[in-house]
Design brief:
Elements (H helix, E strand, L loop, with lengths): L1 H11 L7 E2 L1 H7 L7 H9 L6 E3 L2 E5 H15 L2 H6 L2
Antiparallel strand pairs: 1-3, 2-3
């Protein structure tokens, strides 16, 4: 009974407000479908994207993914490279 009520309450929270995301939600909302789901799964398998597993379920934290995404942007952006090509 509790699980059924809990499941209903979780479904009531709009996806944009939840911090825990499934693979599909992360792919749509954080990665905006700009990479393939196969690539997302490959990056998860290679442990290059922060995630957790609960049994066989892969879950992401929205705030952790957004922080990781920003770190990747900073890591891959080098103003000196741009200035040297001018």
């Amino acid at each position: 009974m509790y699980e059924s009520t809990r499941q209903q309450s979780v479904e009531y929270i709009p996806a944009a407000k939840r911090n825990t995301l499934t693979v599909n939600e992360a792919w749509e909302e954080v990665f905006e479908c700009q990479i393939s789901k196969d690539k997302l799964y490959a990056e998860v398998r290679a442990k290059r994207i922060p995630h957790t597993r609960v049994g066989s379920k892969i879950l992401f934290r929205r705030d952790t993914l957004l922080k990781w995404f920003h770190e990747q942007e900073v890591k891959n952006y080098c103003p000196a490279d741009i200035e040297s090509h001018s």
